[in-house]
Amino acid sequence: MRSTAPATASTLPRWGVLASALTLTAADLALKALAEHRLTGGPGPHLLGLLELRLTYNPGVAFSLGATLPARVIVALTGLITAALAAYAWHAVPTAPLLGRVGLAAMLGGALANLIDRSLDGVVTDYLHSGWWPTFNLADAFIVCGAVLLVLTSARHRAPASPGKDPDSWT
């Protein structure tokens, strides 16, 4: 028998984070496709303010780590990490502050976009270059910004201590 009960207070934020993550995933994948279309065989890098548009492909993970591993290994590892992040987000979202939810959505959206991109041909499409940092993409920016938001919110909102337990104790 199906339950017709309305969504609980804990499921609404979860669906909001999922919808946000999927929206960010779609935005990144669309920009990657646009970058490939516009920058392939073109006259070279295009200036975009402080950034330069330059098409590159990364067979590894962050900073090309693991670039010599078979693509299926990288896809499997990033798939596991993305699944673990999704499970953590599903568990943490109901009690997370708003900025923590935004951070989780950004990290999950970026991780999912890079996983999908890598699953297609074994590489991630990068197109933003600063001149002083390795070339990256919007999904990478989502992941980093989301992680920063999570660190900031976790530092600001400590979990309540169990009764009778010292909140500064590691045990």
Explain the layout of strands and helices.
Blueprint: H1 11-39, E1 46-48, E2 51-58, H2 71-92, H3 98-121, E3 124-129, H4 138-156
- Low-confidence spans: pLDDT under 50, at least 5 residues? none
What proportion strand? 5-15%
Task: Report the helical percentage.
Answer: 40-55%
Alpha carbon gap, first and last residue: 44 Å
Q: In order across it, which strands form the biggest sheet?
A: 1-2-3
The main β sheet shows up as: 3 strands, antiparallel
Compressed to H and E, one letter per element, the order equals HEEHHEH
- If helices are DSSP runs of H or I spanning 4 or more residues, what is the number of helices? 4
- How many E strands? 3
What features would you highlight for this structure?
171 residues; mainly alpha; 4 helices
Can you describe this structure?
By secondary structure, this protein is mainly α. The protein is built from 4 helices and 3 strands, in the order αββααβα. It has a 3-stranded antiparallel beta sheet. A hairpin with a 2-residue loop joins strand 1 and strand 2. The radius of gyration is 19 Å and the shape is globular. The model has no long low-confidence stretch (mean pLDDT 85).
